[in-house]
Amino acid sequence: QVQLVESGGGLVQTGGSLRLSCAASGRTLSSYSMGWFRQTPGKARERVSAISWDGGATYYADSVKGRFTISRDNAKNTVYLQMNSLKAEDTAVYYCAAGSSPTTSPLDYYYWGQGTQVTVSS
């Protein structure tokens, strides 16, 4: 069993930056691909970014390419999402998730955090 806890969300102005962290306990994250998803009311959960178990491959939604960077530190059992040049449309609850492969489908992820709110004000 893996417990994931996100942190780092908050209120930021358009153009600002935030760094989300996802800390794991229970088991090492090094066996898992990790994803960051986001969700707004009435919409499906969207994969924002993902990273392979060793950090060798990263993936981004077109809407965040060039602005967001995913990384992981397996020694610290933590995954990060650096978000720069934030836009109002980035406002959402952000979730981290652990799975067997870095796919876009939430169904392929076994463990989820509770989410952290990111609000970008214009």
Structure description:
With 122 residues, this protein is an all-beta fold. It is built from no helices and eleven strands. 0% of the residues lie in helices and 52% in strands. The strands form two sheets. Strands 2, 4, 5, 6, 9, 10 and 11 form a seven-stranded mixed β-sheet that branches. Strands 1-3-8-7 form a four-stranded antiparallel β-sheet, with no helix packed on it. The protein starts with a strand and ends with a strand.
Low-pLDDT runs = none
Secondary-structure element sequence?
Answer: EEEEEEEEEEE
Helix content: under 10%
How large, in whole angstroms, is the Cα Rg? 13 Å
Total strands: 11
Rounded average pLDDT: 96
Distance between the termini: 40 Å
Principal-axes geometry comes out as globular
Helix tally equals: 0
Q: What class do helices, strands and sheet pairing give?
A: mainly beta
Sketch the major β-sheet.
Answer: 7 strands, mixed
Query: Strand-residue fraction?
Result: over 45%
In short:
With 122 residues, the protein is mainly β. The chain contains no helices and eleven strands.
